[in-house]
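Long-time lurker. I teach an intro course on protein structure, and each term I like to show students one example going from raw sequence to a predicted 3D structure in token notation. This year I'd like something fresh instead of my usual example. Would anyone be willing to generate the tokens for the chain below so I can use it in lecture? Attribution to the forum is fine with me.
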Amino acid sequence: MSTESWSERLLGGLRKTSERLAGNLAGLGGTTRLTDEQLDEIEDALILSDLGPRAAARICERLRSARFDEGLDDLRLREAVADEIAAILRPVAKPLDIVAFPRPQVILVIGVNGSGKTTTIAKLAHLFQEQDYSVMLAAGDTFRAAAIGQLQVWADRLGIDVVTGPEGGDPASIVFDAVKRATDTGIDVLIVDTAGRLHNKRELMDELAKVRRVLGRLNPEAPHDVVLVLDATNGQNALQQIEIFREVAGVSGLIMTKLDGTARGGVLVAAAEQYGLPIHAIGVGEKIDDLRPFDPDLVAKVIAGVFQ
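-- Reply from a regular --
Happy to contribute to a lecture. Here you go:
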């Protein structure tokens, strides 16, 4: 880790989100009980901050019954909102635990091109290395030569093996080779990159189904995880991606990237409320250690602008 702490980096990454939410909530408190009109304004403020209508309605319903004996200034309102955001986020905060037996634990990583998928795979590999797990990568996104090359560069940097094939090759055969090699060499974790094309859902679905069949022949439990990488800068569009990939790939958990420099970090809360899928980790930068397990209480405080 760099000298800057993770909480400081998270604070910096989500600054625009917290400033946006604080700005939208400014001046909406001021009483011991919130009126219907104030609650409507707070609900609008939360929706404008990308928390989504379902989370906004839930938070306001909780605030409706709350009593604030000392009055509700801007800070106390943000603290109350932070508490409710944390209540939404806590149930979905689940780190990616390596529990597969026999090894390896196979993690399929999916996401649209440009979401930061390949870089996230490298960061995830580094996170597992820090926990003393051995890691191997598989370049299953064979449709982009750049993705294969990028994964190879990261693997070299991390000192781990990557199984690759020719551009345009069959992803399932690469995954087959990777699982065999990982099993034979006693690797703990195999992380598989997959194609990120969404313009042809049927093609993507067929390809992922073939990869799953191949994995199942080698290890009936595999893949153990299907992790969707989401780009926070996409805001509400990220929710549509969850919908599509859940349908075509059976997503089991999420990683949210690019939280730095976006005012749309509230989409984390919307995703948690709407889908309830585990959020394994979040990323706030380009450095190799800028991906960390998801801490719901810290994130809630930062989003609501009450973490100092």
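Some talking points for your students: The chain has twelve helices and eight strands. The longest strand covers residues 225-231.
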